[in-house]
Amino acid sequence: KILVIGASGQIGVELTLALRKIYGGANVIAADLREENELLKGSGPYVSLDIMNKEMLHVLILRQNITQIYLLAAILSATGEKNPNLAWHLNMQGLLNVLDIAREENLHKVYWPSSIAVFGPTSPKQNCPQQTIIEPTTVYGISKYAGEFWCNYYHQRYGVDVRSLRYPGLISYKSAPGGGTTDYAVEIYHDALEEKHYECFLSENTYLPMMYMPDAIRATIELMEAPQEAISVRHSYNLSAISFSPKEIAASIQKHIPDFTISYKPDSRQTIADSWPQSIDDSVAQRDWNWKPEYDLDAMTADMLKNLTK
Ligand code: VAH
């Protein structure tokens, strides 16, 4: 059975629904500290879980015959800068709790997301490679990079089959984003429909690596279903789809809502965004497990506006 930790979050909701479609609702246990997301209700079992309580997690895994864990619980970049100690503690100890139980109970597989936030101002801005200078400048990025080394360690030393992707900014309509710097690219669609105006907290030419959630969910499942021998990266795979700026996503929206306007009022998140690469080289993921994105900016905009209008 599969356990999804952080199942009520932006990625968790969609990943839980996708896994339940493949493996059956009863075989995917959704867990979160928060209450069950509306979209999950009725689709399978839901349990309350504090990832920091290792004993409770261990009992849950034994009681529910869990063989795979997807750990999505984390504090993201913007929130993390407001609570550095909590972000480090939760992001790090949560992963170590899962990895140690996976080793002890010999679980089949573990999935844990990293992020393009591991890269810092000294990493190449364009086509940032899988291996390069990596000096994160946010607590979130530090915790994700440290986590990558722990994943590699548990694989090398104990044979834990833990797999990871460095997600770009993710855009979705099913559930709200969780306090990241890329959240503007979700808010803008909601405001375009409700106010026909969006005040953006990043400057107009802030290019960032982004991806539509359906692509991110498919990448996760394709990685987890790839044969072990195909996986050459046990830290975390670079993953790429689209890069755009607030100015470009606004133009994409204006093709559907001509009188939509945008204004810019950069805040502290601008510094975080400026520390990240503008585009990512994911040629290793393409080579190892045939990664290929499907949504470009205009296709994402059309699908977001269609589904948010419903
Ligand atoms: C964040 N959405 O903004 C996350 C993601 C690359 C960005 O890690 O923190």
Automatic annotation (TrEMBL):
InterPro entries attached to this UniProt entry: Epimerase_deHydtase (IPR001509), NAD(P)-bd_dom_sf (IPR036291), NAD(P)_epim/dehydratase (IPR051225)
Gene3D superfamilies listed in its UniProt record: NAD(P)-binding Rossmann-like Domain
Any one GO MF annotation of this record: L-threonine 3-dehydrogenase activity
Membrane-spanning intervals of the chain: none
Name of this protein: Nucleoside-diphosphate-sugar epimerase
SUPFAM superfamilies linked to this entry: NAD(P)-binding Rossmann-fold domains
Pfam families listed in its UniProt record: Epimerase
Residue span, NAD-dependent epimerase/dehydratase domain: 2-232
Protein family membership: Belongs to the NAD(P)-dependent epimerase/dehydratase family.
One GO term (biological process): L-threonine catabolic process
